[in-house]
Design brief:
Elements: E1 11-16, H1 20-23, H2 28-51, E2 54-60, E3 116-120, H3 131-138, E4 142-148, H4 150-163, E5 167-176, H5 180-190, E6 196-198, H6 200-217
Parallel strand pairs: 1-2, 1-4, 2-3, 4-5, 5-6
Length: about 220
């Protein structure tokens, strides 16, 4: 494996929170924004299937009463609007309750036997989940990170992966944020410091190069 190549045998494709509540329940504008992201995730998943790259689905998994959600103070909510009452910090998210339709992976990316489903209770897919152990057991040290939101789960997982010494490739056009300027800031001003940031086309080329390298060594 080199800078411009990805070896499938040591790589995992992380499709972060590509769930019904995040992809299907938003506004018409949100769904339009997500269309190319879904398309690129599907393309990458197809290449992963063809080359033997592990496919990993971190997914929100919360109690209906919200008692597994950390109650902390913050200035604003996910919509970046100030709280009407900042003392009311426990706000269950009914759309991603464990077992609900909203918490299931979208049909376009439906998991298959052998894939990894990673229930999570915080933003990071690596925080107190089985994901790291599953990856280490399989010898995976490279992660292709896709999904949303860029500044929330993607960023949190990226920082965690960095601190666990995973090689990280953030797929810029297979990640998304409702705020384009925030997405661009992370892709150009944050992630390049500790990861490779590439488009879907570039990642596919890197996988092809890694596959050829592996074949040549056999």
């Amino acid at each position: 494996m080199g800078y411009d190549a990805i070896s499938p045998s040591i790589t995992g494709l992380v499709l972060f929170d590509m769930l019904n509540y995040a992809v299907k329940e938003g506004s018409a504008e949100d769904r339009r924004r997500l269309e190319p992201v879904v398309t690129n995730c599907v393309r990458l998943r197809s290449v992963a299937r063809e080359t033997g790259i592990a496919v990993i689905y971190p997914k929100a998994d919360h109690r209906p009463d919200g008692r597994d959600i950390g109650a902390r103070y913050s200035d604003v909510g996910h919509d970046m609007q100030p709280w009407a009452d900042p003392e009311i910090r426990l706000r269950p998210h009914k759309s991603n309750t464990a077992g609900s339709w909203g918490a299931e992976v979208i049909d376009e990316l439906a998991p298959e036997p052998g894939d990894y489903l990673i229930p999570k209770h915080r933003w990071s897919a690596l925080f107190q989940t089985k994901m790291e152990l599953s990856l280490r057991s399989r010898g995976i040290c490279v992660l292709l990170l896709c999904g949303g939101a860029t500044e929330i789960g993607i960023a949190s997982t990226a920082y965690a992966a960095r601190d666990l010494d995973f090689d990280l490739v953030v797929v810029s056009d297979a990640c998304t944020s409702s705020k384009a300027d925030v997405h661009e800031t992370f892709m150009h001003g944050v992630f390049p410091r500790f990861a490779r940031v590439r488009t879907t086309d570039q990642v596919i080329e890197m996988i092809e190069a890694g596959t050829l390298d592996s074949a040549a060594q056999v």
